[in-house]
Design a protein that fits this description.
By secondary structure, this protein is of the alpha/beta class. Helix 9 packs across helix 10. The protein has ten helices and ten strands. It has a six-stranded mixed sheet with strand order 1-2-10-7-8-9, with helices on both faces. A four-stranded parallel sheet has the order 5-4-3-6. The protein has two domains: 166 residues, 3-Layer(aba) Sandwich (Rossmann fold), CATH 3.40.50.1100; 99 residues, Rossmann fold (3-Layer(aba) Sandwich), CATH 3.40.50. Strand 8, helix 8 and strand 9 form a beta-alpha-beta unit. It is globular.
């Protein structure tokens, strides 16, 4: 699997008048295993190879970046894959699930109220590796810490990323330097979670300074919000940078709001993490976005 090194792009116009802001473009690392998904999957995939398993099992929603990334990676490694999908099977599969199925993933649809606790029979899991939804867990955190490996990030005062489960933000905190603050922009209507989970994970790394979580849900997970859509349009028109409406659009919108609220000083230097997820925009009606 060929993974590209992401580049850093200065954002000279979108945040004009505030501190210097750059973006680390993780969407560049791979056309399918895009953004932070590669980093959160990499050590799980390594474990699958080392254990010699024949199947990978994971779970997610109909437009899950994790589902399509896992399906593609499993196929690349010559492994079977099973995706446990939240909700009953629709009359027509989402583009994401169609792509996952075309990569050989077997889809199992589970009612939403049974999804969290559903378990496959042991006959299917005996020779399989289970990857938690979104790559959550110690291996996912270790992988996310590698996001900053190939770049010089020493000059930044703040590192910001969209936060769902908290896995990526926790990984960034592992790699951050003493003078840097890691900010997680929580995009879910579940504050103060995932602080509890992050605190539990960081018991494995007691010397790490926990990230700071700020709540900018903009209506809740996967909700279409006019402020976020406006930011996405502005970012494309001014910086030629595509964003998604679930994660990075909220990250950039929240950064704009924080600058307006004088959260940062002019001397600060910000690095935003573009965590990928652009394929999720396919859930929007055609014409919703300018790219």
């Amino acid at each position: 699997m060929i993974i590209s090194v992401p580049t850093i792009q200065p954002l000279r116009t979108l945040f004009a008048g505030g501190p210097a802001v750059d973006v680390l473009k993780l969407q560049e690392v791979h056309p399918v295993v895009s953004g932070n998904k590669w980093y959160k999957l990499k050590y799980y995939l390594q474990e699958a190879i080392e254990r010699g398993v024949t199947r990978i099992i994971t779970r997610g929603g109909a437009y899950s970046n994790h589902i399509i990334a896992t399906a593609w990676a499993a196929q690349e490694l010559g492994l079977d894959s099973i995706g446990i999908i939240r909700g009953l099977a629709p009359p027509m599969l989402s583009p994401t699930l169609q792509d996952a199925q075309s990569c050989g993933m077997t889809l199992r649809f589970i009612e939403k109220n049974q999804f969290a606790n559903f378990q496959l029979p042991e006959s299917e899991t005996a020779s399989a590796l289970y990857i938690p939804e979104g790559g959550v867990g110690r291996l996912g955190i270790q992988g996310a810490s590698d996001i900053l490996t190939d770049i010089d990030f020493s000059s930044y005062t703040h590192i910001l990323g969209a936060c769902g489960t908290g896995t990526m933000i926790t990984g960034l905190a592992l790699r951050a330097l003493p003078h840097q603050q890691v900010l997680g922009i929580s995009v879910l209507n579940n504050a103060p979670s995932p602080l509890t989970e992050i605190s539990a994970w960081l018991k494995n790394w007691p010397t790490v300074t926990p990230p700071t979580l700020l709540h900018y849900a903009y209506g809740g997970y996967a909700k279409v919000h006019p402020t976020v859509l406006a930011t996405i349009r502005d970012c494309w028109e001014q910086e030629q940078l595509p964003l998604d409406f679930v994660y990075t659009g909220k990250l950039f919108s929240a950064t704009r709001a924080l600058i307006q609220e004088a959260y940062f000083t002019k001397n600060n230097r910000l690095l935003l993490i573009h965590s990928g997820g652009l394929q999720g925009n396919r859930s929007l009606p055609l014409g919703s976005l300018p790219f």
